[in-house]
Design brief:
This protein is α/β, with parallel strands linked by helices. The protein has helices at residues 76-81, 95-100, 130-136, 162-171, 195-204, 225-234; strands at residues 4-10, 13-18, 21-25, 63-65, 88-90, 106-108, 112-115, 118-124, 140-145, 152-154, 175-179, 209-213, 241-242, 249-251.
Length: 252
């Protein structure tokens, strides 16, 4: 069975090493404080709130996987620094934007596609409720099934909602990377998973490892790593849910 390594860079940005291939997910590469804050929330520090923990060698990246192109998942620094011939795997709605930005190897996944010898399956995501959720759409998740047969689910920015049950029932991922942080604007409900959503996710998917990211780096994310860790401990989930620090590597 081949190597499967997951390294949290920062926020939603992760490096997946699957066998001998490296996939960069949702690159947000700006230095700390380079971008304006989300307005109307308590924390008004500039984004991102944390520095990149290390420099990514973009020449060694085999592909970029984009769940969507909001600026905290695909920023101006990533647009500038990524080689324009980079293999990009994305949702169909982002094709025109990416090609307009000059990227020449953009591959939208309508339902499923094969890249680098792995199968990529697009899954639904719901980035909030009501009018806010409609404005934040479209966003997607992805299931990756490599030849080592350990399936990996990347949730994208989503809350817990009914269709995720279908995703988990159908794909039964061995490893899930869940975007959390309980991000919220000044009005409306959270637009990414809360600690209670993580509990529901783990209760429904009662097997497999869960890695939680999307915390402590963007000003409208209200759930911290420390708070989530305390919650997981209280609910006997610490043995199967990883909450990595920036730069931390998990090998499964």
């Amino acid at each position: 069975m081949g190597l499967l390594k997951i390294q949290l860079v920062r926020h939603a940005t992760i490096l997946l090493t699957i066998e001998d291939k490296i996939i960069l997910v949702d690159p947000m590469l700006s230095p700390k404080g380079e971008m304006s804050p989300v307005l109307g929330v308590k924390n008004q520090n500039n984004n991102p709130l944390s520095e990149l923990p290390f420099e990514i060698n973009l020449d060694k990246i085999d592909a970029v996987l984009l769940t969507h192109t909001h600026r905290d998942h695909f920023d101006d620094f990533a647009i500038k620094l990524l080689p324009k011939n980079t293999l990009i795997i994305c949702q169909p709605e982002d094709l025109n934007k990416l090609t307009d930005l000059g990227f020449k190897n953009v591959n939208p996944v309508q339902n499923r596609g094969k890249f680098l010898g792995f199968e990529f399956i697009k899954t639904p995501a719901k980035h909030g409720t009501g009018e806010i959720g409609e404005k934040m759409a479209p966003v997607s998740g992805f299931v990756i099934t490599p030849s080592c047969k350990k399936s990996i689910y990347i949730s994208g920015d989503t809350i817990w909602f009914e269709e995720l049950k279908n995703v988990l029932n159908e794909h039964k991922p061995d490893i899930s990377v869940v975007f959390s942080g309980a991000a919220k604007f000044s009005e409306g409900d959270p637009i990414t998973m809360t600690k209670e959503d993580i509990y529901k996710f783990c209760s429904f998917l009662n097997d497999g490892n869960v890695i939680v990211n999307h915390m402590d780096s963007w000003n409208h994310c209200n759930l911290s790593r420390n708070e989530l860790k305390e919650f997981l401990e209280e609910n006997n989930l610490s043995n199967r849910v990883y909450v990595p620090d920036n730069g931390e590597i998990i090998i499964l």
